[in-house]
Amino acid sequence: MKSAANSLGWFSALAVGTVAAGASYPAIPADKTTPSQQRIAIKGPNSVSIGWNTYQQLSNPCVQYGTSSDVLASTACSTISITYPNSRTWGNTVTLSGLSPGTTYYYKITSTNSSVEHFLSPRPAGDTGAFSFNAVIDLGVYGADGYTIKADNAKRDTIPLIDPSLNHTTIGRLANTIDDYELVVHPGDLGYADDWLLKPKNLFDGTDAYAAIVEQFYGQLAPIAGRKPYMVGPGNHEADCQEIPNSQLLCAAGQKNFTDFMNRFADLMPTSFPSHSSNDSARILANSAQQLSNPPFWYSFEYGMMHFVMIDTETDFAQAPDGPGGSAGLNSGPFGKTADQQLAFLEADLAAVDRSVTPWLIVGGHRPWYTTGGSGCGPCQSAFEPLLYKYGVDLAIFGHVHNSQRFQPVYNSTVDPKGLNDPAAPMYIVAGGAGNIEGLSSVGTKQAYNAFAYADDFSYARVSLMDKNQLQVQFIHSTTGEVLDQSTLYKSHSESFVVQ
Ligand SMILES: *[C@@H]1O[C@H](CO)[C@@H](O)[C@H](O)[C@H]1NC(C)=O
Ligand SMILES: *[C@@H]1O[C@H](CO)[C@@H](O)[C@H](O)[C@H]1NC(C)=O
Ligand SMILES: *[C@@H]1O[C@H](CO)[C@@H](O)[C@H](O)[C@H]1NC(C)=O
Ligand SMILES: *[C@@H]1O[C@H](CO)[C@@H](O)[C@H](O)[C@H]1NC(C)=O
Ligand SMILES: *[C@@H]1O[C@H](CO)[C@@H](O)[C@H](O)[C@H]1NC(C)=O
């Protein structure tokens, strides 16, 4: 979430003056082929991408893999080993194709110092097995550069500056429940590297502090992201070196305009899947969506009963908040070749979804338009809400506001009279309470259609696709695992192509 107080914090901290400088860089391993910051993603039907960073460029990044941990008979390689100014590492990406669906694969990133990991290959589109995924938004680094206690919110846990890296309530819960879900979606506000300026020790070392937080955050997340597909979208904290409006000229090269986000995830995230529909026009539309997709900003994928679309609420639509001249002053993008590329993608992608193959249509994005405590993103609502309604999106997942919220199905701020029983309007949730240095946002004023709101402690959402008609949303207390709220959305999904 944007914090107007950031700039004030910066100036008051400057005034303090007596600070020990120093970015908290992780130690560079002696063997510079050692993989770090491992992450995997669903890349296509039967394919998974694997990303990792190294402290030297690799001429030929490779991954050995197979269905037995002792026999990694297959090898996939690429030439993708890229960096950008002011980064100490190279990002490597390799795609494993032709995987058997729903199968445990073992993999070893080729290095003189790496170990064997494993993942479950994706369910094919149309598979009707029940599964869960977690929505974890506004997460952030922990330790010397992050996740902290503020006097105004004593309920948050103390995170000591010690290993193990899993000692972060939300990451710890994701680790302890690793067999209970199949993927993680994180639509924006990932590591909060741009909040380096909230720690006085970083004040005179901002460029290194930003780079250090990036390295730490993806290292802390690796035990999760290296085993479960980690599907990301852009948030305002990915945009710039800090959130002081119109200050991007002060940002070092490589620390503005979503640079790390693009370098890290453009090759890792999918474009969109070819249609499995028997309907010719759906297949043509899906093909057109693929041409218009632009990972990691906007893209889609299919997984069992789900078609999931990631949207970019930051740039690339009218009055986009982080776009050139946008309200956030972050002056980033545009990333499409034309001004309407994202919305053209979204319309083609949604129109192509055949509910007889993937009954559940879910959208993820960063900034909500329905939120408690004041106004949501108006330009986002104008751009996206009509399309989400028209094509019968079942659930829309946002973050940005640092708490957990659930809304009755709603369109144009009017509640769907059917409630959770086969509504025409999408159900909306905010799952922005995963934990970051800025702390939680109080619930604030609720709308009549707000069904649940929680800001007492860190939490996230677990979404379970039970069968073609029932989808369960649970909000989980990160520290205790307690279910804070549970609801089941019923949809008849009686039409193959919804247009309303
Ligand atoms: C090998 O990898 C481990 C785990 O990442 C690391 O702690 C260690 O320093 C590495 N060893 C060398 C020689 O680089
Ligand atoms: C973090 O580690 C400390 C010290 O080992 C422990 O007391 C605490 O319970 C841990 N917290 C979590 C959330 O695991
Ligand atoms: C075929 O798909 C299009 C959307 O691409 C839809 O409008 C149309 O109704 C579908 N036809 C049938 C027979 O379902
Ligand atoms: C940001 O990067 C995109 C893609 O490289 C480019 O088209 C755009 O002009 C850049 N925006 C700014 C403000 O530099
Ligand atoms: C949305 O609601 C407003 C007022 O409640 C109304 O004026 C407007 O026509 C509605 N828009 C749509 C697309 O239904």
How would you describe the overall organization of this protein?
The chain is an alpha+beta fold and 500 residues long. The chain has 2 domains: 40-120, Sandwich (Immunoglobulin-like); 131-490, Purple Acid Phosphatase, chain A, domain 2 (4-Layer Sandwich). The chain has helices spanning 5-16, 169-176, 206-225, 259-265, 280-292, 341-351, 378-390, and strands at 36-44, 47-54, 62-66, 74-77, 80-82, 90-96, 104-109, 116-120, 131-135, 183-187, 230-233, 299-303, 306-310, 360-364, 395-398, 404-407, 410-411, 414-415, 427-431, 450-454, 459-465, 470-477, 483-490. The longest helix has 20 residues, at 206-225. The chain starts with a helix and ends in a 10-residue tail after the last strand. Residues 157, 160, 167, 169, 172, 479 line the site of one 2-acetamido-2-deoxy-beta-D-glucopyranose (NAG).
